[in-house]
Amino acid sequence: MNVYDFDDTIYAGDSTVDFFFYCLKKKPAIIRYVPRQIFGACRYALKRITKEEFKEAFFVFLSALNEPEEYVEAFWNANEKKIKPWYQKQKRVDDMIISASPQFLIEPMGERLNIQKVIASPVDIHTGKYFGSNCKGEEKVRRFYEYLPDGVIEEFYSDSHSDLPMAKIAQKSFLVNGNILNTWNVED
Fold this sequence. Notes:
The protein is an alpha/beta fold. The chain contains eight helices and six strands; from the N terminus they run βαααααβαβαβαββ. Strand 5 and strand 6 form a beta hairpin. The longest helix has 12 residues, at 15-26.
């Protein structure tokens, strides 16, 4: 099986940020949440709150969306084209996505790509509240083995060095820079 990070790996951009701006365009009233988002970002930068608390502050705008699932579907209708062509050419039936982005946002795109399993951060689509840990770094490895205790990763792809724990458990890993795939020497 091949395992992929999502944002800036197989998706050109950060889907969470893109989703916020998509929602802002469709429902401008959510701009009222920007001060709370900025305050959360500042508190996180000063190490006063956890990553999950920061992201909850960011996702507070979800509470203003009447049917957030419809926003997600419409977002992917508009943004599915941002899946990188190199991925489209090599995708396989047994691919897996593992991402720090919210499950509610990534899973529908996984379904469109016919990806059987998406592991992502557990966030309530109606409130923006986390009901588990942010799926990043070592948490990705823990969640992968929770799902597949004997799982073997043939190839792992990511744009971020924060995914080194995942890269280390794969037989072969690649650092993605735009559409360029570089072999990732995890021993360095």
